[in-house]
Request: fold
Amino acid sequence: MLEKWKKLDNAMEMNVTPYNEDGAAWDAFVASRDDSTNYHLYGWRRVIEKSFGHRTYYISARNSDNEICGVLPLTHMKSALFGNFLVSLPFFNYGGLLCNYDETASAILVEAERTLSEVNADHVELRHLNVCRQGLATKEHKVTMILDLRNNEEAQWKALDAKVRNQVRKAEKSGLTAVSGHLDLLEGFYEVFCRNMRDLGTPVYGCNFFRNVLETFPETTRIISVLL
Reply:
């Protein structure tokens, strides 16, 4: 196993290696970071490999106390249509470097470059919410819309635009009801999902993808269906 060492402020050493453990330490680090996303969680490695068969390469950096101080999840995508590259992460708009120090990010990128050469891919694509500080070439053609959540239902309702509130009232008057569930609602959800993706002209994910997501994250995922 190739190891990369780099000094941090002449006081701390770090070890950058492929991560192939149970994910507990990885997820603990992700949970400690305010800039992390759901897609940094280690469970997505299982979802991607099981649903699509893509090879994944997860990289972690540890300090001299063997504590994780940086991570980067990578998936190898290889097809005639989209090309041959590593990405963090495919199928989602989030992922990328998650580090405590700029030096950590630089060292992880060195390991990512080594992995790139090892799998004979063309480039690495990192998907960040903010501009990467490593001076990498960037594309900013996508936007993320975030709705701040209020402390209670009444405050959240008032924070909505008047047009949105009117649309909600119309739905209520139409007799629509919302139910929340898990695998029990998967079949109905998937039927509607496929129909809408077909109308948009977009290829659909297999049903097993959603099943794997629900089974991998049983405590934090649910399906919300609107019924007439």
Remarks:
- Residues 1-7 have pLDDT under 50 and may be disordered.
- The helical segments are 24-32, 43-52, 102-118, 153-159, 162-173, 186-200, 207-216.
